Amino acid sequence: MKDVDLFDLERDQQLKHEAPLAARMRPASFGEFVGQEHLVGEGRVVRQAIEADQLPSMILWGPPGSGKTTLAYIIAAMTKSHFSPISAVGAGVADLRRVVQEARERRGMHRQHTVLFIDEIHRFNKAQQDAVLPYVEDGTVVLIGATTENPSFEVVSPLLSRCRVFTLEPLTDEQVRLIVKRALADEERGLGKMQVTVEDDALEHVVAMSNGDARVALNAVEIAVSATRPDEEGKRTISLAVVEDALQHRALLYDKAGEEHYNLISALHKSIRGSDPDAALYWLGRMLEAGEDPLYIARRLVRVASEDVGMADPQALPVTIAAQQAVHFVGMPEADLALAQATVYLATAPKSNSLYRAYLQVQQDVKQTGSQPVPLHLRNPVTGMMRQQGYGKGYRYAHDYPGHFVEQQNMPDRLKDRRYYSPGDQGYEKEVRARIEQWWKGKK
Known about the structure:
Layout: H1 2-18, H2 21-24, H3 37-40, H4 45-51, E1 58-61, H5 68-78, E2 82-87, H6 93-110, E3 114-119, H7 126-137, E4 142-147, H8 151-154, H9 157-160, E5 164-167, H10 173-185, E6 196-198, H11 200-210, H12 214-226, E7 236-238, H13 240-247, H14 259-273, H15 277-289, H16 294-309, H17 316-330, H18 336-348, H19 354-369, H20 384-388, H21 429-439
Parallel strand pairs: 1-4, 1-5, 2-3, 3-4, 6-7
Helix pairs in contact: 10-11, 10-12, 11-12, 11-13, 12-13, 14-15, 14-16, 15-18, 16-17, 16-18, 17-18
């Protein structure tokens, strides 16, 4: 039995030695932890809960590489709790039941709490999340869930109501730089024994391209070091070219089904509304390069054409429809320029939300006033009985009058004085306003 234990110990040590740099450099205490001072700094909420041994179940919400898993490890260690990690990618209800059963036995025999850490908890479906709920509620386990997605969208309400949600921020450039330098200097867990020197411009490129993700930065450095042969003195110098080759392509933060999806389309829409073609093009590029469905973007541009440009430039709608057709006809990536053209057209077009406001008022009136009858003179008298009842009586045919216009009531009696559409003074809508004012001189 002792030999097996020694073998297991040797295997664990070997695995730690062969683990990626990011895993080897994982902080073991708050003294090593970088960032998230608003949560774990002296006197802050998470730190106080741990020190008071009143650990609540929690959801850690933050971008990749911000320290969610590391923080969960540290919390379990500081509270002397057993740490039971599972990944929502591959785990199921059976795994949860096993952890719960072990937690019950551990609590009964050793009076030890169990921290159930569920990585990527947003990937659990409703039934799986519901399976966790009773054991969080009765204290069998303390749940720490980690997610990159907004918990209010991805975590079921009953479970969310029993957890504290803590938001982690992306690491700053300074913090990522500190983490990389620590890894380069650490001789036990890091690269200190390899005598690595990273040139300043190479380090700054790693920091900039990591996008606040410590794991990305450490992985890039590790790849660059492994790809660099030592010189005669055994030293390795990492240049900008080596780092660029190691990084290849920055993985954009994006989830087509999550919050970032809505954040980016919101930024695109509002940049167009704000007549900023540069910002609009940037957000369009962010979405396309991250793999967003181009037809989804085309549909949103069609909406923008009517909502924010409208009659100020009636050509905006045909332009966006043409872009949508180009996506169908040409496909990606060639159709990216068609979407870019439509985006710039909308951003630089005169703006009006008169149509949008008008239709909102119409919707409200329809809901509040119900099915108002069509005035008799506007009804089509297709039968003799209809004519006898007054259908069409008194209708004035506009083309029989000068200017092809005659003033008459076209609204239901209850809404006869209602005015919905009020043209603005931008672009083509300025002409529309003049026409309406000329025609309907008596209508306010």
